[in-house]
């Protein structure tokens, strides 16, 4: 036994390109058997070793028992062994393929299970490991069973010859690194262990071994053929038949049975028997994302006496996927991919995602108008596909291949030694997932360049499954190995020339001579931190240009791991927080959801952009609004939701109507406005669409779409409630009106205190502000090992914007009347000898308590555009609620506000803080007419709206903190009032991506606000 163990390990299969598995059974679609699978999930005995040479041969002895227990499935790094490593591109090990470090951590698992004696009497017993990373050896009862690689596909072994009735002992050695590591260089936490389900299956001796389902539709989609190819495990299938019965719920639609058709040879060289059955279906109910109709297939193997030897059951979705005239079609309709990339990840269980979390994700996706998921960057657990079939999500099934860290990237994918490895990762994925209607596209992997191996695998895919297109971004997004142009982070109008692989704009891609393929962004809209500025621009383009068919946002959920300290406190960790090197810090935090799966504000923008109802305001030739249209973007189902619209005139609701929609696919409904509206007043029309009934994942009365039309919309300025008419007394640099005292510091020129009835209202003076706590998009790749001098943050730092010196140039107080005093100031802000800003203010202090502030700013145009031009102050009040009139109710920024509506909002103070794991500026509200924060009321001056955020944290603290748990609430609140605020960007997070129209590049800026302080 010892020699056997040593000999097996000495082969170093994990470094041999010629060994991908030993004794692993061929891949097949999911099969069902009479016996319910026996789950081996639970607590297994576990030992951790720094390398495989430390594993004693005695470990194989049944009496060698570890006292440590570890949950299966899990990653051992999350159980306290070893450390997770987060890298985006760089390999976590020295790059010497196929070799890995000698200190290659090993997890040694032991588990005892009981086997019923009847399982040994007939048939076979197989074990399936659905996900183990990155390679493993298996023993049962001291007998070596086999070896397997590829962490994201099942490994099945026949244990029959090694089992006994009663207690059986499984031993598994899992290696952290293998040659496969070089093909699993995805942007994720690098962890290891048995992280998916482990199951035992009892199989009948004579059985169906595999089957495929194809659905063919005629040109009118009136007739379908369900074509089944079935294989058995028996050497001589003459006399056997396979019977197929298709059910529509309980009703039999069609049945047929056939004998042996042809003989083929499987990948092991064993003869398999091939049966073909074609089931005609008249007027089929088609499967799509909107109408995920599933039939039930019952497939039975009959022996020569007509006895049923084995029956499998499989849901069947009848649908057709094709590319015609430069468009991707499902059931003859050009689809818009409302997609997102998704890693298998949770903050507490790492790679293991249970069914409840899958359902939670699908619910959020459906409720936010997603219809597609790219399984980035590997095949997912099988249950995800079953749920996608059931609930209606299009899937891009992606092979577990990424060599991003190689230079050049196609070094390995061009190497014929690795063609078998790549081939297994593609072919086994297809063999497992072929029968899922949700899988509409195959992917050859991610970021692996373009090599000869890709060409070979593309050809195999097209021959094996001509019913689905192939999408692969490597080699420039338009290589010969893709049926769909699949760029990453291409911008709508801006080309990004690159010496090796140009990144054209979307508009240029579809205009390239001779290029007729559809374009789907394989990744776009990098949702890192406070991001997704300019997102609507993509959807305007998708709706305008037929060959632009959507894309997949990067990505679904922040990959932040919950880290618990010795004192029990927990916080979300990113790269480097476990001492892991190399690391790419918080580049793991780029989801639409926070690590706990609560939505980020940007998800509201996505939901709005992707909504299935589009509204347009109609005007007559004189420009007067006469009505609006609502168009359904559903392609396959009738829209039966409920539309409600309300017309407000001068802020008062004058008309409301509710309509139950009955729109055919793509139909448009026109609705006229009342003819007696007073168009001399400000008119706003608010529209919402809610579900009429419960559906599988979306409840009744759930808002699925909204719109707001603003016609002559005013800023809704509200009058101050301060006591009018007080006589103003000027006492030095104090201005006194009744019980209020406003103090200006004659040395600094700042309004430093505002006292009402003896209570000081300010904790920090009213000051100019030109910076923000940098967003991830501001910092760019400066967050990782490289410093990008072109990033906004580096440019701001180089210009000294975070360390400006203020000089007072002018300060005077000018009484105008008994009830009006002007305070005039001028400041310059400089770094070293360079003056970056000159700011002139006029404070008009009124006897009724108002202070009008007019601000003129001149900036040095050779300096980088600032993040904001505005004011900041710290208020002593910490109100429970904040009232404002502006865009909301959620966080919005100048380039991410399409989903917001302009209205009055009264919200808890906590709602103005967005808990980004890596702190930054957050919580902004734009186009604000007025806001009340405790005692202070701020109103737009001259009807020019402003932006604001109100937080318990200063910009300085947000700037300094590296994790949100490091933030500590400060006294009172910080109120930031911006006349202008730059966008957040988000086309990507590693280059400046804020569109020019959202940058503060002008030389002169003017804004104004009115302040009024209440007791």
UniProtKB/TrEMBL annotation:
It holds the Pfam family Glyco_hydro_2_N. InterPro entries: B-gal_small/dom_5 (IPR004199), Bact_Beta-galactosidase (IPR050347), Beta-gal/glucu_dom_sf (IPR036156), Gal_mutarotase_sf_dom (IPR011013), Galactose-bd-like_sf (IPR008979), GH (IPR017853), GH-type_carb-bd (IPR014718), Glyco_hydro_2 (IPR006101). It catalyses: Hydrolysis of terminal non-reducing beta-D-galactose residues in beta-D-galactosides. GO terms for molecular function: beta-galactosidase activity; carbohydrate binding. Keywords: Glycosidase, Hydrolase. The keyword Hydrolase applies. Its EC number is 3.2.1.23. GO terms for cellular component: beta-galactosidase complex. Coiled coil: none annotated. One of its GO terms (biological process) is lactose catabolic process. It comes from the Bacteria. SMART domains: Bgal_small_N (SM01038). Belongs to the glycosyl hydrolase 2 family. NCBIfam families: PRK09525.1. This is Beta-galactosidase.
